[in-house]
Amino acid sequence: MSALTLPEDDWIRGISIKQPWTTAILTGAKTIENRPRPWKPGWVLLHASQQIDRPALRLPLVARTIRDQRLSTGAVVGIARITGCHQDPEGSPPCSPWAHPGSWHVELADVQELPLPVPARGQLGPWKPAPDLLDQVFQQLPGFRP
Question: Could you tell me which residues come within 8 angstroms of residue 130 by beta carbon, excluding any fewer than 6 positions away?
């Protein structure tokens, strides 16, 4: 699939996430990403940041989820669709074991891991991927249809 067959305009963004959280999303176990502000529904490239959240590697939930998985950094490693974004009502139990109180919970679905990571620079907040990056990503997902 080439960029010529993809929709025009702003239909996809990038989201940069530290490891091991990105890998937990790729396994399908982590369907909530915690953010300080809400995100709009739509498709996102899953970018594993350069930094690794080392204390998170010792959390039992994370360790069980990412066992035997590679922790690529500085690369787009998959795609996902944001289906919604919410905050848990004050005093209620978290919507997921991955949800942090007080954060916006970005709901992720349709996660697809890339066979090979695509090196890329991410950034804080939603970012617009360059056309050549999209070409490299979607060459690896020939069956993808937005």
Answer: none
